[in-house]
């Protein structure tokens, strides 16, 4: 009899597993990485078995498993380390310039960055990012209704490369923060029967975005202009230049060089209250078998904030020189160049930053009483990140230089992304050592939603393998401690001209390919962990 029961459980596990692994595993960026220590220790495969108040996010129907009044306090810590190297291949040439000063350099020693509501991004560097969460659930004994709310972070990437002022990755993000903080999530679950529950949560989030990056434009046309200046102006200028196009009028500072720093741009924008919804189903036909599903709606989040552009002397002096000559103003007007470029220009900016919809389907099975396996399939609609458009309140003079390359409207900046919507899987196992102690193991092969031909250093998140460990201990008074730790590693290699978000040399790919013609490769390592204390109150 017992052997037959075990066989049935194994057969159910195999059948459900085949259903979930029907298509090739692809995947994700930042979703679910650090929502719950218990979930992360199970490879985030908890849709069919959420461990307490994490159900608000992973499956609101799971709240129906809570009894009485429950509180959960969570503390998280995370670090991200990125190493990137740059190599100049044979035959390298950008408009006649054949030596990129970044050749052979390495970017390392980055730190974390966070976005504080109201305060913004702190200036101090953080060896580790720390966050806290709080959850509350209310259930009257015998009632099929459970109500809850929770504070958590469903999305977070923060990179700080400001320690080294000459860090070669500074041209694709000196500091980058994309963070979503859910500060209220009114939720309800209803137990339809002993085996089936439904649930709904309304997360209300603060969305923050910050980008601080130096800029350079290794473009062939800029290189050709620079070489023309070298030939026409020489070391001491050319007296005939005043009667021509003014290529020498800007002096040595106005000499164009595709590898020089052209400027710096900074954005900081927020959406203080952005609601979405989570709908969940939980079916447990047997004590040893369960199925769960959740749909988390997305949002076309509208962020508003401030921008600032700083222009280095190169373009400013170049334009001044052209407009101080006889024929230069005619040529500049024909090319659509600005009459002048201020050293600083700032104002208001609006950005639509889609928060992608997410769906998760999972099952759990216990082949024996003390061993449980979970498998989840995840889909996230990252295809909404096809491009990001920054709308400014005025024409940005520095961006008017891009009219040469087909960027007609300098009141907006369009940054291509080209991300993909894919499916990936999470796997978890739980071993019950004693009635009070459980051990957990998780594994997620997260194939990136960023194709190799769209990879850049703003979000260098390649295919990553996430391995996790955890432990759960319940004290005699009913307090449960869930501890989880994860390590995620991924490597990337982007040969020259392989990604037009990074290193293309095509004439019209000026925004934005700061490493045009270079081979770029690196590694991203995330280490994160946390503890949750769940107890009745």
Main sheet: strands, sense, barrel = 14 strands, antiparallel, barrel
In the sheet with the most strands, the strands line up as 1-3-4-6-7-10-11-14-15-18-19-20-21-22
Number of continuous helical runs: 6
Structural class per helix/strand content?
Answer: mainly beta
Strand content: 35-45%
Q: Tell me, what's the shape?
A: elongated
Stretches where pLDDT is under 50 for at least 5 consecutive residues are: 1-28
Q: Based on DSSP secondary structure assignment, what is the total number of beta strands? A: 22
**Rg from Cα:** 27 Å
Mean pLDDT: 90
Topology pattern, helix = H, strand = E? HHHEEEEEEEEHEEEEHHEEEEEEEEEE
Q: For this entry, what is the oligomeric state of its chains?
A: single chain
Please give the alpha-carbon distance between the first and last residues.
43 Å
> Helicity range of the residues?
10-25%
Give the tags:
43% strand, 537 residues, mainly beta, 6 helices, disordered N terminus, 14-stranded antiparallel β-barrel
Describe what you observe in this structure.
With 537 residues, the chain is mostly beta strands. It has helices spanning 2-20, 37-40, 55-58, 220-233, 313-323, 328-335; strands at 69-87, 106-107, 129-138, 145-160, 175-184, 187-191, 196-201, 204-215, 263-275, 278-286, 289-296, 299-311, 344-355, 358-368, 371-380, 387-392, 412-416, 422-432, 437-446, 464-474, 480-494, 519-536.
